[in-house]
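Input chain follows. Return structure tokens only.
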Amino acid sequence: MAEFFQISDFPQRAQETRGRFSYQQVAKSAEITAQLEDYQARLKAQRENEAIVLSQRAISKGAIQAQDRKARADLSRESKQLTEYEIFANLATQQERMAESIDAIKADITALLLPAIEKIVGYLPIIVDYAKQAIEWFAKVVAAIKKLKFWG
């Protein structure tokens, strides 16, 4: 602000900064605003004084004890929730370990059974041929027995 007053063309600068309101209007508005702020401060101080008196009337030993019981109950509930969270976290960890173990067991079973399954699949054509031969032989036996008229 000091720089503003040191400028040599102060009247011209003052005219530019005045805007659409006169200095008298700005001064009057500032005075009214200051009075309203004082009034607001007085009302706030009155409210604070009333709050002190009213709270003193409402606060008793019993109220403080009730507040303490509530705070202790809140603390107990929070502690229980933390304990339950720890239990669930442990269960989740155990579940993850079990899933890893199951995956390892599945991999071991697959490693053991896959070669056996591959061998069985390799023997399937032979087994099918033997089954066909057995069915054909059984059909021949049935036909031969029918020719003998063994059953009537």
